[in-house]
Each structure stands twice: as C-alpha cells, then as structure tokens.
Amino acid sequence: MSLEIKVPPVGESISEVVLSSWIKKDGDYVEMDEVIAELESDKATFELTAEKAGTLKTIANEGDTLLIGATVCQIEEGGAAPAASASKSEESTSSKTPEKSEEKPAEKPETYASGVPSPAAAKILAEKGVDSSSVNGSGPGGRITKEDAVKFEKKEAAKPQSAATSPQPAAVAGARAERREKMSSLRKTVAKRLVTVKNETAMLTTFNEVDMQPVMEIRSKYKDKFKEKFGVGLGFMSFFTKAVCEALKDFPAVNARIDGEEIVYNDFADISIAVSAPKGLVVPIIRNADSMSLAQIEKAVMELAGKARESKLTLEEMTGGTFTITNGGVFGSMMSTPIINAPQSAILGMHNIVERPVALNGQVVIRPIMYIALSYDHRIIDGRESVGFLVRVKQLLEDPARLLLGV
Q1: Which of 126, 176, 344, 379 falls 20 to 30 Å from 309 in CA-CA distance?
Q2: What are phi and psi of 160, to 5 degrees?
Q3: What residues are annotated to the active site?
Q4: 189: which residues sit within 8 A by CB, 6+ positions away?
Q5: Domains of the chain by range and CATH?
C-alpha cells in the first residue's frame, strides 16, 4: 500500500510552491519524518518530510510549480533500510588474518542517513556542482553536515591544478557567452512587489547626514562589557532601531499605512530589517521593538539574520511590520533611494560611514559621516513629517543619551 505525500498548507496567502530540490532520490528507502525534499514559496523555504517509512517514488520534478494539496511523491510499503556494515563474522575473520599487508580500514556502519546531505549542505554542494557521494559525512548516521560541505569546498579549492588537464581553448576575440536561469518564486514576487509599489504609491525620498562619532565612541567604550554581560555584540542596527522607534512616537503617520480609504495608525513598532539571504532579499520583523533594550534588539537581529542565511525563517517572522530599515552600507553604498516595503508607508536607508571634512563650531574637522535616506508615501506622509522624522533620528543618533532618557 502506498501513501501520497502532498504539498502542505504553508500560509494563508500562499497558493503554490516550487519544488526546489529533492533531498532523497527516486527508489530510496526513507524513514518516517526524514526530510525528502525542499519546497520554496514566494516568502520562504520549507522542508517536506516523509509521513511513513518505505520506498520513495517521486512524481514531481525539481523546478515544478505545485499547487497546495498537489501530490509530490508516494511512499510505498516494503523495501528495506540500507544494509548495515559488514557482518561481525567478516570483521572477525579479517582481524585474524595473518596477512597484514592487505589490511583495510574499518568501515563505518551505514544508515539511511549515510551520505545524505542536510538541506544547508545540499545547497552548498549544488552551487559548486559537487556530487554528495564524494563527500564524507560526519553527522549522525553518516549524514553530510554543512561543516562537511564547507570543509570539502575549501579542500578542493586548495588542491593545485593538475598539469595533465587538457588545455582550455583560447578565448576568441569578440566571443560572448550567456546563460539562463529560471527566476525563483522569491525573486519573482520581489520583482512584482517592487513594480507595484513604484506604480501605486506617491514615493519620494528625503536625505540627511549623521555624525556617527558619538555612537562609535559609545561602542568603542562599552563593546567588551556589553558582550560580556549580554553575550552579543553592540552594533549600529540597535541604535538605529531604537532611534527610529522613538521618532515614530513623534511622527505616527510614518508608522501608519493606507487601507482602502482609511489610514491605519499603529501604537506599536514592528520593525522590519532587510537581510540579504542566499535566495534573495528577505525582511524579517522585530516585534514590539519599541519596548526592547539595545541588547534585546541586537539578539533579535542576530537570530533573524542567522535564520535568513539558512533559509529557516517562518512566514510569521516575515509577515507584518510597520516600518523597515535597510542597510546598504554593509555593501559599500554611499547613498540610495530605498523602495517602500508595502503596505508600509516608509523605509529608512542606512549607508556606509566615511570620514569627511565638516564645519563644527567655526572649525573644519574630520568626522565619520553617514548619509541616511527616508523614502515615504506622500499620500499619507507630508514633507514636514518626513523631514521632521529624519531630523529626529539624526538628533537621537548624534546625542545617544537621548535614547536612554527618551528626550
């Protein structure tokens, strides 16, 4: 008797997913609750597990778009788990043989997990075009872990190129090559949303600059004690998040959204943090950031960023949000006009910090300056509010004591 494995519901707003990769192959024996495939929606990646033990019979192919409830594969009763290691009697006979010149190293016992990469490891191997059979797994039951894949990649990169390899043909002058890749569900959704925002909002951007020396002095003075006490580093994101939360209290329209013919004001601040993930940009949310300390914000940012890199974010962690912060400075951006994260009405863009000459008390001094940008929907936020909000953020960052005193 066979059991059909179908695409499970993964969220109210999601009607279809893409089968991004098979973790197990057709004909493989799988255990109950073992991960057999990865599904990708327009918001996150999900693991598909076996609902019983048996032999896997694949139906859908990698890259197929499947509706919720569609059959992905079948698991048929019967079959057997991979054989264990050589019998004890063979090991005993081998250990008693007088011929030592032909001794072989003891083989590790095989299980259903032997040689099977974890989802994170499978991505790394797939990106490098490496067959998992050439990688030794150190995880439970011989499973290939992310660390195994990274070590193998480094080992291969360190190998000298063989002189015996056939020479590559010389590039022909003017010759050009191109390749095509199917857009992922996440990339397609991001593209549609960005175009929609540009077409359906009256988006404007206002700029200002922040002298980051006061914040940098605090970080330099207290970073070791902060790390020792809270177990997390003191970064710029917590200061910006705290400053934004305070500024939103003074300018509630920046924290609002349009719903039909109504304006919805929020008396809380759920701050979305734009994070670059392997499959594209994702925006996880720090809930109730307005009531959190700097340490709590830093821990939340670190946790969400880690989940984003491993494609482990849940729909709940990416749904909602009242205001977004994006940091292009980590990539070297000097200035940009970020696009609003609908249905929100505003987004703050951080940029790189550069030492610049500035006039201070009648003197020209060198200061670490960051340009900041606020893109906003002019339908709900007036120029006075947008400029006032950005100036308030600037004041709080240039005098960080205000963040603690709330003045």
Answers
A1: 344
A2: -70, 150
A3: 378, 382
A4: 42, 43
A5: 1-82 (2.40.50.100), 113-154 (4.10.320.10), 203-405 (3.30.559.10)
